[in-house]
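Ticket #4471: structure output looks truncated?

Reporter: J.K.
Steps to reproduce: submitted the chain below (385 residues) through the standard prediction queue, then opened the result file.
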Amino acid sequence: MKLEIVQSEFMKYWSMAEKVTGTRSTMATLASVLCVADETGVMLNSTDLKTTIRVKAEGVTVIEPGKAILPLKVVGELFKKIIVSPFTVEVDKEKGTISAGRSHYSFTTYNVGDFPDLPSPRAAEEFTRVSAGELSRVLAEGGIAGAPNEDFPKYLSGGLMQISGGELRVVATDGRRLSLSKTVIENADSASSAREMLLPLKSLEEYQRILTSFAPDQEVEVLQDGSVTYFNMPGVQYSVRCIDSKFPNYERILSDASTTQMQADRAAFMQALDRINIVVGDNSRVVILTLSPGAAMGLSGRAPEIGEANESVDASISGEPLKVAFNVGYLMAGIKAFRGSDVTLSFNGSEGQMMITRPGGTDFIYMLMPIKLKSMDVSETAGES
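Returned output as attached by the reporter:
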């Protein structure tokens, strides 16, 4: 196999394949990319056994067809740091050479037959079709409340993808909060039975990053064969092994009940929380919101032996006066996740669930449980106001 590579064009596709490799695996072939070159072009294949990608590369010319396993540790790093373009890569009998101007590098590769068998969608059935822009949005918003690094229960590290009532929904939870984002599926039968699958959040996060490099109106075909889900776009096939676990019935905990409602500018609210987080982020991590109809929203935080912060943000507040506390990191995550200029928060008392939504919309919900305020916290913040 011999290839001529234009670095500035090729590296976009190499990076997609590189991100899916099993760099922590003891199997050397998993920390590599399988390159298949023929008369149709170059296909880059990589896997960590849970997630697999096949991407057709651009910026590369096939001089001699063939197959080769290219190790990330040497070849991948050289691809990034070579300053001469184009350069050539040649592999023959598990011995490789990179030639870039007056520089030459040799490397050892592996037997192509040692590369793991990759999943195939031959027996898969269509799950849905959705635009890249909308899929990117629901993955980013719907997955924010999950816990990608949790091993038990398994569903905490997963994102539920569900088709129900003519909508595609993505839902995640870490047990303390829940996020849900949805989009209408065109030409879907709203009366058809619900379908769902649970996929690793880390894999969905990586795919969401891939989607941002495609036009928002590019159609994504989603297929499923029971254990593996396939996301297909022209030139890119991304497959993910499903999590064998049952996601809890999230709909039973969602409630429209609220005692206090607030709407504020998302950016101003986020900036105030960010400043308070500077004071409390490494300590209590608690922000207290003080809400009174007709007044601005008060925000405060205190960290023993460090200091305290007090902020005021213009907001439209209705309902009962309320003083309520939250983990500042969790609150910031919910506000940062969704896309929109204004944010609406609905509170159900000082100990009931709080829900973040888009003003006038139901396509995004972020539910967060408050932190119970101690009597000392209430009296101290009351004195400040």
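Triage note (M.O.): checked the attachment and the full token line is present. The CA atoms of residues 8 and 59 lie 8 Å apart.
Status: closed, working as intended.
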